[in-house]
Amino acid sequence: MRRRRQLVLVSTLLACLAAGGAAGAPREAVQDGVVRSGATPLPGMQVTLLEAGTAHPRVLARACTGADGRFRLDYRPPADRGAVLYLTADGGAGLRFAATLGDGSDVVVNERTTVAAAYAFAQFTRDSEVAGPSPGLPNAAAISHNLADVRTGGIAPLLAAPPNGSQTSTLAAFNTLADLLATCARGHDCDALLRLAQPPGQARPADSFQAVADIARTPGHQVAALFALARTEPVYRPALGAAPDAWTLALRYDGNGHEVNGPGNIAFDAAGNAWVSNNYPFASNPLRPVCGGRTALALSPTGSDLPGAPYPGGGLYGAGFGIAVDRAGRSWVSNFGFQGRGCPVDASRHDRSVSEFAADGRALSPATGWRFGGISQPQGTVADRSGNIWIANCGNRSVTRIPDGHPAAARHLALGGTGLVKPFDIAIDPWGRAWVTGNGSDNVVELAPDGRPLRTVTPPGLHRPLGIASDSEGNLWVADDQVLPVPCEGGTTADLAAALGKPPVGGRRPGVVMIRPDGTTEPAPFTNGGLVLPWGVAVDGDDHVWVANFGGQRLAELCGARVASCPPGYRTGQPISPAATGYGSDGLVRNTGVQIDPSGNVWLTNNWRTVPIQTNPGGHELVVFVGLAAPVRTPLAGPPQRP
């Protein structure tokens, strides 16, 4: 096998020399670098510099690595300064490394930079070509630098340090994936990797870069066999000691390190920045009583604060699950009045408003928030395509509709006649209708675009519903929690905490309910081991359904109604994530919100700690599964659309 590898390297070197250097371009910029496997330089590799396009990449320069693995590329920079540039390094026999360019410094191309690029670009890589729209593609390029440092070929600072580093298994999983590539680079045939990485029903990858991108998109496939292969060439440490549930990479973001406490939900703006509701002010000591959070979090796609963030004012206090960004770029954060036990503030003075912020973080609402339209303990908050804002009032069995984002014109939609109790979340379908979950009434109410009640749906088996989301065909997907009572209308967070240890009534299992556009349902909820106290629901650009769990440290992915986008043979409601475990991560705690960004990353909120001491129960991170879902156009206004 090694003899064959040597022959392939010789032929690759000859082809590389014949190809020449800078593709005819006059020298205006230079990119130097080295290709290595671990610390070993790789001579005779054909290095190509490419500009990722919207449909296909464009070659800017080519060069060969010398005996020391080094290369130099002379090229003409693209006119677009924001263009995404990346390198590939080919050694024949299926070996291809890659790296996303950074600040123009010398680059190390190795197994780690390849895994980083393949996962970040997973939703934009087909046939080993990287292409896609903005902002998803450039954001993905930036996120790759959260995994690998292309200046050194080592671990990126964000992955190396808390709240990542040794605090989760992601670093070890990343290194184990790099070891998979080392089996190609160090004298072994790549055939085993390419064979095992082939997604069900799809073409076999032609090279190792595409193979890792395929693993990123189908992380539950051939897990044990890939782990066994990685162990044959242990180069990078620390590595996993046993096969994971799936080959996911989950990063934790904590902003500036002292701002996130009880993040409730996420809404993305047009640039893919994450706006996050925050239950409490930051305090690391769970025994220290905290009051309601008075800032809105706003993070870039790479997890750093936006300029001036976190943003104060506008009447913010103890925001819960309710946050939305409308198509004008304004953010709406509903003030539920969350606070820890022992806080001396009267929460009822602050739980009747919504706060509004401009795209630059300026508060547009007054110091008391907008208090029109009968808002009471608001939770789910969404924007529709017409610019209307819808708010579920958990405290008074109603919905507030703010037409065209004008708070003074807000309407109070009393829904007592529909049987709705404890309205919790809202989803907008393709026809502009609003669907509202009733956590205290085990039903879902459909409202016309103008707010008129149309019907009440009571699906078989539904109990304690929480989050809801629409797919592109108008099917509604509801988190059937079975256990958790929302702490409104007289209920408390102590009641919620007490319910965590209780089994579902009658031996039922938590799951997900699908409601068709005509209000009909399946005979029973969809259940599997990935659904443990399901809370938030999101639908991606392929209409796959994603579910956050308030227990079990796992994320679930289900095949949606559009089964053609699922693996061959899958049916609606069947788990795509491992049926017994979901996508597990020790970076998760108790999660509420889940959303998909324009790069295909799945974001979750670590809302409560695993052991939620009620003086200060909040979790302190957002968790981002890199490259896992089909991208979604943002801001989300109704059902998902591809960018």
UniProtKB/TrEMBL annotation:
Q: Does the keyword Magnesium apply?
A: no
Q: Name one GO molecular function term.
A: zinc ion binding
Q: Which Gene3D superfamilies match?
A: TolB, C-terminal domain (2.120.10.30)
What's the protein called, per UniProt?
NHL repeat-containing protein
InterPro entries xrefs: 6-blade_b-propeller_TolB-like, TRIM-NHL_E3_ligases
Recorded hits in PROSITE patterns, A to Z, give: PROKAR_LIPOPROTEIN
Classify the source by domain of life.
Bacteria
SUPFAM superfamilies, per database record: NHL repeat (SSF101898)
Signal peptide as annotated in the record:
1-24
> What keywords were assigned to this record?
Signal
